[in-house]
Write a structure and sequence with these properties.
Blueprint: E1 29-38, H1 45-57, E2 62-69, E3 73-80, H2 83-91, H3 93-106, E4 107-117, E5 127-128, E6 131-132
Helix pairs in contact: 1-3
Length: 133
């Protein structure tokens, strides 16, 4: 059983410096980059977004997710092991319904991009007791 994931889509979500980044396996893998501008009000968005995160995590080929939203712009990057896994996710019945609601209610505009990740660089500051090592 996978551990519970935080609600990254809550309306009050701001970039939390204590959160960790996703850790997909070594490249290559795929990134689905969803950039959006919301309409005013929640209108059921937070609950559906939480459910979509749970549902995505259950899909074969799902590797992880990172998300951030300020008062206007939101960016969600989900990681997948193949284009086939992304295509299956796109066709998921619950996800299709959320997409429909997004176009009708939640989004002023959005863009979705799919990219193949061929290389990755990482940095992490190690801390001990709040002090940089």
């Amino acid at each position: 059983m996978k551990p519970a994931r935080p609600n990254l889509y809550a309306p009050e979500f701001q970039v939390d410096r204590t959160m960790k980044t996703a850790h997909p396996p070594e490249p290559p893998y795929y990134a689905v980059i969803f950039t959006s501008v919301r309409t005013p009000g929640d209108n059921g968005y937070a609950e559906t977004a939480r459910r979509m995160l749970e549902l995505a995590a259950e899909q074969d080929g799902f590797l992880g997710v990172e998300a951030a939203r300020d008062s206007g712009l939101g960016i969600t990057v989900s990681y997948w092991d193949s284009l086939e896994a992304i295509a299956r996710w796109k066709r998921n019945t619950e996800h299709l319904e959320a997409q429909r609601k997004g176009r009708e209610t939640w989004y002023q505009e959005y863009r979705l991009r799919i990219a193949k990740v061929t290389a990755e660089r990482a940095f992490r500051r190690e801390t001990s007791g709040g002090n940089v090592k």
